[in-house]
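Workshop exercise sheet. Pairs work together: one partner reads the sequence aloud, the other fills in the structure field after running the prediction. Swap roles for the next sheet.
Pair: D.N. / O.F.
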Amino acid sequence: MKQIRFGVIGCGLMGREFASASMRWLHLKDALPRPVILAACDTSEENREWFRRVPDTVFFYSDYHELLQNPEIDAVYCALPHNLHARVYADVIRAGKHLLGEKPFGLDLPACEEILQAVKENPGVFVRCASEFPYYPAVQQMIRWYREGAFGQIIEARFAIKHSSDMDLSKPINWKRMRAVNGEYGCMGDLGIHTQHLPFRLGFQPQNVRSVLANIVKTRLNADGQPVPCETWDNALLLCEAKNDAGDAFPMQLEMKRMAPGCSNTVEYEIYGLNMSARFTTDDPNAISYTVSHGREQGWTRLGVGQKPLFPVITGSIFEFGFSDAILQMFAAFTAELSGETVSFGCFTPQEALQSHRMLTAALRSYERGEAVAL
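Structure field:
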């Protein structure tokens, strides 16, 4: 099996998810190039130590520059706070290492443009942004239906992620509540790409944006038990007038919430059309609901999809699919596309990340002005 030798920069939660996925590579039926994690880099010794459990990892760094100088590293998975994206991502690209970086691909629009400049200067380096939820088999079924024209004219669309860990008011403040580290976007930066990968890839182009933003919890306790300001947005609702490649014009809603009562980390995708409509939620991850017409009336029906992902796996198709499976599929898409294979639904591109930043920057201006902002 061909190998792609990876370094991980940022060995926290998502870095460990990547390590776990790399050790599950035999779960995939196809002989895709396997990511072998040779190096782990983090300023935290505790985080680096966790990677000593990964049999392939033999290099450990506290300075990412040392990792980039290692000639044995082909590619990098990078999961760092947003304020570090521009500098570190650009350094990875200019070092000639392929990059899978975490969202939002820069603290703000100028930071994203800085990363895109490095991409432009290094056309031989393959660069993508992490986004796993479209790899649920039910979402892939929605994609196939759309590409086959099953929806007909689009009436409207909605894409949401409803996160709830911040409903715990005793949760201490973290960097995602600090504007200098997380950026002005607040929840839109950290969660937005989860709502944008699918519509952008289907060709849903927002023409303008109207936004309503909310900072619900104004203070949280710091490490010393003292209340400090929460500077970033908790929740965001974006309403866009959108068009698709067929020329349909329709409203598209993007919903990003850190405070969503009754949810855990719930993703919802909904597309409504004249011929058919479909909706997916991670509350029912192994199924997709769609409409069936009976004359002038329509009824919702539920189709159980199960374990039928983009890249076939050894698990029987009747069994359930979960978040760790989606991460495995996303990394499979990255390594397949990096190796020159045609992938019907690839990872989020730097150009799509730039489109995201332009929309989120316009959303900030929309809220400030109380009006729609053209894109």
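Discussion prompt: The first strand starts at residue 3 and ends at 9. What would you look at next?
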